[in-house]
Design brief:
With about 230 residues, the chain is of the alpha/beta class. The chain has one domain: 3-Layer(aba) Sandwich (Rossmann fold). It contains 7 helices and 8 strands. It starts with a strand and ends in a 10-residue tail after the last helix.
Length: about 230
Amino acid sequence: MLRFMCVGDSMTIGSAGEHTWRQRLWRHLRATYDRPFAFVGPRETLHDPATDGPDSYEYAGDAAFPRAHLAGWGEGWHHMTPLIGGAVREHRADVLLVSLGLIDLGFYTNAEQTLDNVRAFVAEARAGRSRVRIAVMPVLTNIRVDTDPSFAEQATRFNELLGKCLADLDDPAAPLLLVPPPASYDFHLHTYDGTHPNAAGEQLVADAFATALWEEWGLGGPVAGLT
């Protein structure tokens, strides 16, 4: 059985009442991948706006969706690097689907420092499971770029550096994949608050991961516009 682990920040954990891109990707894989697979991870909940904590199980959509993940509201590479080795080891993750960086660049580290955490994350993940595959989404910027040129510059810089970093660290035994971000993604249109994806945004992120998994690693199948 192939085990996927979604790793991310608030865009990945989602909030109470949302489907999340995780569920939309799961629906695609369930329809196209003809072998057993699972979503794994140490967490299951959504963010609950009422408590401002990871307290909600109120997912929209399919009740059969396996909720396991490693994502957190306000968490980035900076936070996940110390956790990933143990999580990969304990849950025997085969494929990591990673969407991180917005929080780091917004509050903790510049582009180069964030890249140091990417390198450490990859090393820790491989220490947890030597043949783990890692697919990484570049930073999808938010409305802050409209008012903060320095942040916009750092996000652009990080995304430029990320591709080279993953290419340098790539290993046929434990491959790394840069996921092309959805070309049509626009935080003015595909988020509900300038940062967090609405239903259309969730689908675009899920489709981007699904397309990369199929085209690069032969996992799943072509995206057929599942919603």
